[in-house]
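This section describes the prediction task in plain terms. A model, or a person checking by hand, is given the sequence of a single protein chain and must write out its three-dimensional structure as a string of tokens. No templates, partner chains or ligands are provided. The sample shown here is typical of the held-out split.
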Amino acid sequence: MTEPALPDLGMIEGRFGRLWTPDERGYVVETLAAAGYSFYHYGPKADAALRRSWRTAHDAAQTAALAQLSAQVRAAGMRFGMALTPIGSTHPFDDAVRADLTRRIADLDAIGIDDLAILFDDLRGDLPELAAWQADVVNFCAGITRATRVYMCPTYYSDDPVLDRVFGARPVDYLGDLGRMLDPAVQVYWTGEEVCSKEIGVGHLRRVADALGRRVCLWDNYPVNDGARMSRHLHLRAFTGRSAAIAPWLTGHAINPAIQARLTCIPALTLPMLYRLGEDYRYAAAFTEAATTLLGSELADLLQRDLLKFQDAGQDRLNIPIPNYPHTHRHRGGGAMVGGL
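The expected answer:
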């Protein structure tokens, strides 16, 4: 029997909260590559040079560390990408902004990127001609980068009405306008029906593809736990609410990780299983296999025993502190306004 093809699996390190250490990130890279992941996009919200201070380059030490990360990701057989959030670049998108973008993208190209992502998530969206201006910015960046793949994340990256409440009402036919104006080669990140979608199905993805005129790359906000409430929980369970049937409707499937780098790898290992096994996938068995692979059988059994406490009850409802299992870090909570992206 021919094994079903996996979609392009990746990680978009796009959460709020503390930055991982080089050792933590290196562990994740090696684990994902061995499991069949094919890309790693670096864009943590706490990296100011990619977001609130995007016009200012990384310093020499940061640049060297990112070049080393690029080399590590590529040596592991994955594509390396970086995500820039050019706050204030669309209104106006003028010569000064073009000059800033040209300089900064040259900086990222010099670090060594295969993929470039331009993100507009968690920014005000009630602006005139939003889709047109965002498309102009992304198309401009696509035209000057040496990266061979370009991604973008819209301001309204989900159907979730929470985005309209927090960032302003989305423009009429925002996705349709964006899809018509974006270069056809640009891939669009999308989180699903909700910011943190419990289920992602074919019907929804088909509708979004029809609106955009292209399939999306899924930005899956699991196992991310960077919000003030979510950070009190460890997201450890295997993937649920997704099926192998969605693969033809995706250009890729990227997960947004938890604060705990090594524990992130437990659910991460189950995503390839979900696609490979199809209707034979069982999430409890997938968790056991992934946890045993990474932690050994004894520690995996302990984690399985306390899974309900860690993931569902959370730290605030426990009578004892969360155990500091080997290779884990206690979570302190991030600053995500809407809980995931």
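For orientation: Residues 43 and 83 are 5 Å apart (CA to CA).
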